[in-house]
Inverse folding.
């Protein structure tokens, strides 16, 4: 009876170790992907913050309200397209 128990214990311990290793590999892959996506996210928003001209320069440029809105739209539109592409890519990555 002891030999059966020892055999069973040996087999189950091996399978448990394999499952632990597989779980650790999945966790590493998950966190690696998450860190990459956060890096891309920070990069995109850094580009937005760098490229959008602040409104407080409007006094120096003597822009009217409509001109200021048009200028802001022209500054933000390309970055909004990039952000939209980024969000669509994230949707397809995490769609599983």
């Amino acid at each position: 009876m002891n030999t059966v128990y020892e055999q069973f214990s040996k087999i189950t311990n091996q399978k448990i170790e394999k499952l632990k290793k597989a779980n650790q590999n999945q966790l590493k892959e998950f966190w690696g992907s998450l860190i990459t996506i956060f890096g891309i996210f920070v990069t995109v928003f850094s580009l937005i913050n760098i490229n959008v001209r602040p409104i407080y320069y409007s006094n120096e440029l003597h822009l009217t309200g409509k001109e200021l809105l048009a200028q802001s739209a022209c500054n933000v539109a390309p970055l909004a397209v990039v952000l939209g592409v980024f969000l669509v890519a994230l949707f397809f990555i995490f769609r599983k």
